[in-house]
Amino acid sequence: MIHIRCETLLDYTAIAEVNTLAFGQENEAKLIEKIRYSDRYISELSLVAEVENVVAAHILFSYIDLVGEETLQVLGLAPLAVHPQFQRQGIGSALIKAGLEIAELKKESIVIVLGHPHFYTRFGFQSSVVYEIESPFPVPEEFFMVKALQNYQKQYKGKVVYPDSFDEV
Ligand SMILES: CC(C)(COP(=O)(O)OP(=O)(O)OC[C@H]1O[C@@H](n2cnc3c(N)ncnc32)[C@H](O)[C@@H]1OP(=O)(O)O)[C@@H](O)C(=O)NCCC(=O)NCCS
Questions:
Q1: 29 is a domain residue
Q2: Angle (CA) 109 110 114, round 5°
């Protein structure tokens, strides 16, 4: 049984550990810390999944910029990490679904992710080109994806700009 809830201060160490183990480097754990102390952090959208009271996985959605005719704040999904011992058991999927539900409740418009299409298309993510949304770096177009939420409107197009926190990831 997994239990999904918002992070608390007491989870910070476990979240860093899960990210470091899942990615095999500390960059994502550091990214989370930078975002937490920035104005892009959304406390309701930093979620942990617990298995028997142990943090097994973490997901973070935070605000990034979409620069078109105007600059709009949209959600970026990053990072998502499942402890290696708990991978391929549906936990990553459960965290994505839980996060998307909260994003809908918050009346957000779109979510951007850089990730594997085999995984993310099952949650309704599509290549960003479908939405005329451009990646800030060269990446095969199927890997840079957008999920339109119920509040999506056509003005959500342009080029994504990540905050400085993302520079070292
Ligand atoms: C990728 C990751 C978040 C998926 O979470 P998970 O709980 O293991 O995944 P779920 O059990 O919910 O879903 C299984 C799907 O995840 C994907 N997946 C899992 N591990 C994967 C891996 N090492 N490489 C690529 N895809 C992977 C597959 O698409 C798999 O689907 P399939 O069984 O049909 O092949 C998790 O494995 C992880 O933390 N990996 C290391 C960190 C990472 O790469 N994060 C990327 C986030 S963009």
A1: yes
A2: 165
